[in-house]
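Batch 3, record 17
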Amino acid sequence: MEATANSFYQDKVVIRLIQFSVIWAVAAMAVGVYISAELVWPGIDFGQFWLSFGRLRPLHTNGIIFGFGVSALMATAFYSVQRTSHVTLYAPRLAWFCCYAWQLIVLLGGLSLLAGWTSSKEYAELEWPFDIAIAIVWVSFGIVFFGTIAKRKIRPIYISNWFYGSLIIVIAMLHIVNNLAIPVTLDKSYSLYAGAQDAVVQWWYGHNAVGFLLTGGFLGMVYYFLPKHAGRPIWSYRLSVVAFWAFVYSYIWAGPHHLHYSAIPEWVQSLAMGMSLILLAPSWATMINGIMTVSTAWEKLRTDPALKFIVLSLAFYGLATFEGPMMSIRSVNVVSHFTDWTVGHVHSGALGWNAMITYGTFYFLVPRLVGRELHSTRLANMHFWMALAGTMLYIMSMWAAGVSQGLLWLSVDQLGELSFGFKDIMASMTPYYLMRLVAGLVFLGGTLLMAYNLFMTLKGQQPKRASIPAVDPAYGMS
Amino acid sequence: MNGLTFHRKVEENTGLLIFGILFVSAIGGLVQLMPVLNQESLETATANTRPYSAVELTGRDIYIREGCSVCHSQQVRPLVAELERYGPYSRAGEFVYDRPFLWGSKRTGPDLHRLAGKYSDDWHRIHLLDPRAVVENSIMPAYPWLAERAASETGNIEAKMTALRRLGHPYTDEEIANAESDLEGVMEIDALIAYLQMLGTGYSAEEESGE
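Prediction for the assembled complex:
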């Protein structure tokens, strides 16, 4: 066969997206470290509005989710959908548009948050001009992704593509419905929903942004890169299919567990709690499927830092998806809600699961994309232990802080009087907040090591042109 | 056709896959959202709940802009300790003019839903400009710029109230026409304090007991 542009995979856009993802990871984690220091030394905002905690905290979360997370998801989706379809990307120019337009949204959106443009809805803070831009890029992402699947040469659509597909479709639905608003000026709009109704819509979005972006999308990463890396097929393909539909069906119900004991109807709270408990089943099915896939390849863990990251990320996925349903139980939630326990829970997911699976994937992918060895395995191993230590210290300090807050706030004496003043409880948090600051610094340090390591691996290298292999007739399109 | 052969069809068809995901993921949302969005009691204001005045609305938008809701909830739960600490628990009818809702998800600082009247305007002014001057060990940021900016700079108040009226908030033509003059001479910090001093005033014990 003659070699044409169509006989090679499009990998340049993948490399560029990985570079952006790492840049956002470093930047947004640095902001996180800074605001955690503000909770210990509140004076370090120096009276500047753009350094104020209330503006920087959304910048931190948006930078991580949309900068680091989505760039990594786009990169790995573009990489794996080509390999599993045995074709090059559909509409490659549109893929480049997604890549750069998205970075522009994250950059300008971040600046707009500093300027105080915000809808205040968590993880949907960006104002309406950005919401429209996000919708356009997201649809383009969908066209490239599903277009590639539609022209595939392999008959079955591989399971990783289902998870990436659910990411694209469900996030589009949530994003559009939750952000419906009447614009007033460029920087201000009013939500179409008010009060209790707005709360239910927002947490339907908020919880499932976690569900389908930070879980569904990243599970796509697991299902492609874990078997590739372990050199083993998925332990049970059938289990992955069952877990997929159970996951897509049940996740969406769980949002109102963020609103226990609030003014929304009680049946909505109870239903959300029940479905949150059910959600444990598909979550753990996926985790077990992943762990069993590596179970005959444990010896690789001794030499391969990338696989270590991926296996550890599954352990944290299991931990976070166990903790989540427990926290959704009303009698547990009464203690955990509004406290730093929630912050710790989010970070056991974001650091232990999302960041680790991404790091493992990048360590695996970047050397392959340029056809050379990773610059330093030793640095990658150091990064692994720093990431683990940072995450554990973070979670434990926030458990301690959150459980103390929750119990001390609720404590009343025999006469029904409050045992502790709010101020005193708040003041007693400093040691935990300091510990969390150290945890963040260690985790950020590890991320910097990776940035350097990947930079040195890519330095001066041209992307390797990977040719599309012949299709096994047993799986080809008939 | 058994389940496995049916699923094989889905596994090999892009359109079915897209439709299947959309359908299956939409069910939960529809079952929960549709009844809630159509429940009238959630849209019915309590007797003392009224739309925000021009100054209060400006204050509320400043509260949103500064991210106050990142650290302060506005949702008192029906628990003994919370009733004791904050006051009567929050009712749905008190929030019908809240776009967006500001219940929050974290109490780095205390809940603010029943804040009205607990402290004087002067206390709030000092506290916002220098929290540690009145609360030892506070970790709240200071907001010095609020005292330096006029409330009229916060945004187009007439356009805001007109937009809210389109969404059903009962503002009169007169209220909207006077909005700009209401903001004259008001600094951002004054507007924010006006908002804080009306937080939670929608509740009345008489209405609850049915008198």
